[in-house]
Structure formats: structure tokens, C-alpha cells
Amino acid sequence: MEQLKLNNGQTIPQLGLGVFKVQDADDLKRSVAAALKEGYRHFDTAAIYHNEAWLGEALAESDVKREDLYITSKVWNSNRTYDETIAAFHESLKKLQTDYLDLYLIHWPSDGYNEKWRAMEDLYNDGLIKSIGVSNFEKPHLEKLLTTAKVKPAVDQIETHPYFQQKELNKYLRSLDIAHEAWGPLGQGKSNVLDDPTLVKIAEAHNKSVAQVILRWHLQREIIVIPKSVHAERIAQNINVFDFTLTDEEMSLIAAIDKNQRGSGDPNDEEFLKNSMSRD
Ligand code: NAD
Fold it and tell me: Is the pTM of this model over 0.70?
């Protein structure tokens, strides 16, 4: 599996399995087992997905050693303070049946993220997290975070797919040496990106599926991808993207189909951020 080097010297497998919306324990365990068999070692969850415990069980049941796994989780917006962030982290560790995380992210730039970051830095300095990062942070959020941060985020996990390519933010992240990680890399099954005629044509030329072409495009942009599927055949397909290369011309053709069209979750939606901070 291709690894990317992060700004703190740690490495991350460039492709992993996302488990958002997997709400059934058996589905989750089956898909993690299928993924491990296909060579996935990187798994992306979050406290708000309410499936960390199942992921923990699935990984504990496998014979893959902990040091060969890469586990990401995220602190939810309702955990607002330094102490709440520390407590939420330990809760995630317990559920995931591990004593450290490879990557821990602030899920959204909801109010108070500078203080939450201080807690993340302490957990990082204590060796409980190998790398710390953010998610759904745009330029102004990062600028504000960096006014107090002592440790620079290693990763920013943001919505990215061919209809929402995040070209500007990608450039900004590159300038800061913060790795760009794509959520919703396949458009979340919401847009019709999988039927896009340009992508269909490129897929036919390589004898690959459109999903594989999209994942390959992300990889060649040096973006980390965590496609989600609970189907063994798609899980296998989504990691089978290291045996072909898109040409510069194909990369340019894909760059041109950008619609700058967000699929969900706007980090500038103050109402959403405020509501998501509720402790109920
Ligand atoms: P995704 O783009 O990975 O799309 C998943 C959907 O694509 C599946 O449900 C399936 O319908 C389809 N699919 C998957 N493989 C396919 C294939 N080979 N062929 C055809 N269709 C296929 O969307 P996602 O799950 O929302 O994003 C991936 C991961 O990113 C999540 O599971 C989660 O871990 C993370 N995520 C993070 C945030 C955040 O705010 N940080 C938000 C959303 C998702």
C-alpha cells in the first residue's frame, strides 16, 4: 500500500476504508474483514458514527497486529472544551480497544476549536496520538487555529470529488504542508458523478470502473482517500487502483469537469455548527 509522509514524519496509508453510516454491527464487521483480506490497513471512523466499538471488535478479531493498522477517529462538536476533548478521546480509545490512535481529528470548525486543539496537542505530546489534524477546516479556520497552535495539523479531511475538487484549498494546504484527505471521495452516491461521460470514457480506456478512475485521480493528486462500501466486491474494487496510471491529459480532462458543487455539510453554515454543539 502506498504511504504518504505527513509533516511530522509519520506515514499514512494513502487509501483506507471509511465507515460513515454503517449502522449495523454485522455489516461493519463483514466489511472490515473483507477489507483486511484485500489489504486495507487504514480505517476511518468518528465518535458521531456510533460504530467505533464495532470497528474495535472487528479489528480485535483479526490477526493483523495493531502496529500494522492505521486508525483514525474524530472528536465531535458537542465536546467543546479542553477537558471534554480529553474525555472524548479516552472514550474513543476504549471503544476501539486500543491504547493509541494513529490520527485524531477535530471533526468540524465549531466554536472553541483553538481550545480543543490544545487538548489534542497534549494527547499528541503524551504519545497517545501519532498525528493530529482537522476536518472541514477552510482557510480562515486554519488561519485562526494557527494563531495559537504549537503543533501544525498534519491532515485536513475535507469533502473532495470530481464535482467538488477543492482546487484553492488544495493549493493552500500544500503551501502549509498539511495533507489533503478526501471525504466523500466518490461523491457519496449523491451526485451523478459515477455516470459522468468524461469519467466513463476514461474508465473504458483503462478497463476500470468509474469509481476506480476517481480514486486513482485522487491518489495522483497526492490526496488521501477513504472510500466507503459495505459490499465485498466494491471493497475489493476500490483498493485495486495501484496498477494503472492516468495520463496528464486525462488528469486535465478530469480537472475540467469540476462544478465546485458541495454535496453536504458546509463548514460555513453557522446554524449547523451551532446546532451540532448541543450536548443533548
Ligand atoms: P463515498 O464518496 O466514499 O461514497 C460511498 C458510497 O459510494 C457508497 O455508499 C456506495 O453507494 C458508493 N460506492 C462505493 N464504492 C463504489 C464502487 N466501487 N462503485 C460504485 N459505487 C460505489 O462517501 P462517504 O462514505 O460519505 O465518504 C467516505 C468516508 O469519509 C466516510 O465513510 C467517512 O469515514 C468519511 N467522511 C468524513 C466526513 C467528515 O466530516 N470528516 C464526512 C463524510 C464522510
Answer: yes
Q: What are the C-alpha distances in Å from 270 to residues 74, 109, 266, 267, 275?
A: 20, 10, 9, 8, 9
The answer to whether residues 210 and 194 touch, using CB atoms and an 8 Å cutoff, is yes
Phi and psi for 76 in degrees, rounded to 5? -80, 160
Task: State how far the Cα of 81 lies from the Cα of 174, in Å rounded to an integer.
Answer: 29
pLDDT digits 0-9 by tens, 165-188: 999 999 999 999 999 999 999 999
**Which residue, among 95, 114, 116, 101, has the nearest Cα to 51 in the 3D structure?**
95
Mutate to test the pocket of ligand 1, among 52, 73, 75, 183 (most ligand atoms within 8 A of CB): 183
Query: Residue 201: how many CA atoms within 13 Å on its side-chain side?
Result: 8
SS3 14: coil
